[in-house]
Amino acid sequence: ESDTDYRGGTVSTNGKMRYQYGYMEKSSLVPDGDGFWSLLWLCGKSGYMYMSPEIDVNECFGNASITAANCHAWPTNMGLEHTSLDGKYSNEKKFICPDGKKLSDEFHTYGFLWTDEAMTFMIDGDVFFSYQTNTTEADIDAFVNSSMYAMLSYSVGRDNNSLDISNCTPDEWQNTNKFITDWIYLYRLQDGKGNLTLN
User: Fold this and answer.
1) Mean pLDDT for the chain?
2) How deeply is 79 buried, as exposed, middle or buried, from its count of CB atoms within 10 A (0-12, 13-18, 19+)?
3) Planar angle of CA 173, 184, 114, nearest 5 degrees
4) Using CB atoms within 10 A as the burial measure, which of 2, 40, 108, 195 is most buried?
5) Are 155 and 6 in contact (CB under 8 A)?
6) Judging by DSSP bridges, how do beta strands 83-84 and 94-96 pair with one another?
7) Is pLDDT at 128 greater than 60 in this prediction?
8) Spatial separation of the C-alpha atoms in residues 56 and 151, rounded to whole Å
9) Which of 11-15, 29-33, 83-87, 89-93 is the least confident region?
């Protein structure tokens, strides 16, 4: 997909697979350079309030020393405001690599556990952020009652990326402009809750 502002692509299970609750894990090498925007994310349509939920399992805006989790409940013509974790949880939902390392240096494992009570985000088996989803009506509608499809995306230089693609160095374009995913696994939970729909 392309337009005058960016180049990129998405692999999506929309129309093929949706799920509710489970453990998703992927192994990826993420790009490093201003404007290289990569993410694994989930989208769906909720029921009662007709919010459009989104869960960002891991999102890198180009600085490969940081990745972030997020969830959004997008508004509709009912006048509901867009809500996300960008405010109160802005810092808590970020994973910052220690010792000057970067997620572009080698493959890392990104995990996401989704239950009817919470979402938990992991890197290389370690939890870096959790969010309780069953405390407000909007969250229950968007993140407890919904099923979602998964997407793997990479965009370069997109307008709503806060980083400037013109700042990328020749070395970054040549050597770290890579988003490689080795595998993605999805596991069902033993509690029998949730569902998986294949088309």
Assistant:
1) 88
2) exposed
3) 115
4) 40
5) yes
6) unpaired
7) yes
8) 10
9) 83-87
Tell me if residue 174 falls in helix, strand or coil.
helix
79 CB contacts (<8 Å, ≥6 apart)?
none
Residue 154, judged by CB atoms within 10 A of its CB (0-12, 13-18, 19+), counts as buried
- CA-closest candidate to residue 66, choices 41, 91, 40: 91
pLDDT of 7: 75
Q: 19 has which bridge partners?
A: 148, 196
pLDDT recorded at residue 105? 95
Cα within 13 Å of Cα(10), Cβ side: 15
CB 157 within 8 A of CB 35: yes
State the DSSP string of 56-88: EEEEESS-TTEEEEEEEEE--TT-PPPEESTTT
Give the CA count within 13 Å in the CB-facing half-sphere of 145. Answer: 17
Count helices and strands (H / E) in the chain. Answer: 2, 14
